[in-house]
Amino acid sequence: MHHLLGRQLKKNFGDKPPASPEFAVFSQVVSNTYDDYDKDHNLLEHSFDISSKEFQELNNKVLKVVEEVKFEKQSVEQKVVERTAELKAANERLVELDKVKTEFISVAAHELRTPLTAIKWITQLLHKDVTSFTSEHAEQINKLNEIINKMVSLVGDILNVSRIEEGRFGSTLKQQDILPLLQSILGIIEVNAQAKNIKLIKNLPPTLPTLPVDEERFKLALENIIGNAVKYTSANGQVAVTAVATADKLTISVADTGIGIAPADQKRLFDKFFRANNALKHDTEGTGLGLYIARNIIEAHHGTITFNSAVNQGTTFIITLPLTERAK
Ligand code: ATP
Ligand code: MG
Q: How far lies 285's CA from each of 101, 108, 113, 317, in Å?
């Protein structure tokens, strides 16, 4: 008999519980019900114990994962900070190295210029006397003169590039009569054009206004742009140079019927040392510095330089220059 039922019967009936068979069956049923209740109760408590234990374990696992993630995050953040500092230091070092490199090139070009000027001077003396040499020697002197001139212009280009890079490529602009300047540039180019059997068309008006220019640099820029037109055009082609002045600006266009520039190369045209593949095949000589310098010169004159081109059809460069120094 269940102890609770026993206790209750004792309370109600003392030591003499009713002796009828119905009462015995009733007591048995009540006692069984108490037992079932105890069993269910135990089962419930036990199962709750298990789930709360599992919950605890799960909770601990979650907390552990959260801790691990927190730690990971901290170490990633730390790594990002460290890498950023490393990159900053590497970048500073690169800037420093770039400066050293530019300085080195600048010093080397300066040092080369002095002996080169002496060689050029001696070669020019020999060149003047070229008729007094045998034809074989005369040919060698002519070649030497040509090579020296190329070296002088290469060293000059390198010096100009380092001046641009170091921000000391200041131009001194003076009002100049532009027509004779253009004519003298075209006179120099004409020799090359004739040698290549290229027709040089000069569309110059009878008068042109004066312009604020740095004569030496303006010549350098124009000689390269018109020189390129001749250089990158095959025999029997033509190059047309046109100058037009309006109230506020001078426009010079240089149109050739040459090899053209592929669309993919066009955005790199003014980059230092860039030479397109078709140009490399057409003319092996050149450093790819001419246009970089020319654009800097034109910009120092507050002008603009643009071009349009089609492969194997030709290229037109358009230069505009303001008539007054302040106009842009
Ligand atoms: P250099 O430094 O001796 O002038 P370069 O003529 O090769 O050498 P840039 O004058 O700077 O160098 O010109 C850069 C490149 O632009 C050329 O190599 C060529 O690919 C392209 N280019 C310039 N002008 C023309 C042109 N008129 N027609 C076709 N390609 C041109
Ligand atoms: Mg060139």
A: 25, 22, 21, 21
Rounded to whole angstroms, the Cα distance separating 68 from 266 reads 54
Q: Distance between CA atoms of 211 and 319, rounded to whole angstroms? A: 14
Q: What is the pLDDT of residues 246-303, one digit of tens each?
A: 999 999 999 999 999 999 999 999 999 999 999 999 988 899 999 999 999 999 999 9
Q: What is the tally of structural domains in the chain?
A: 2
Ligand with the closest atom to the CA of 285: 1
Residue from 301, 296, 299, 300 nearest 324 by CA: 301
Task: State which ligand 1 atom lies nearest to the alpha carbon of 278.
Answer: 20
Among 141, 169, 197, where does a domain finish? 169
Q: What is the pLDDT of residues 104-131, one digit of tens each?
A: 888 888 899 889 999 999 988 888 888 8
The neighbour count for residue 153, using CB atoms within 10 Å, is 16
Q: Are residues 151 and 200 in the same domain?
A: no
Distance 169 CA to ligand 1 centre (A): 22
The whole-model pTM stands at: 0.74
Residue 57 domain boundaries = 1-169
Distance between Cα 107 and ligand 2 center (Å): 24
The structure tokens listed for 136 are 């074989």
Q: What is the CATH number of the domain that holds 72?
A: 1.10.287.130
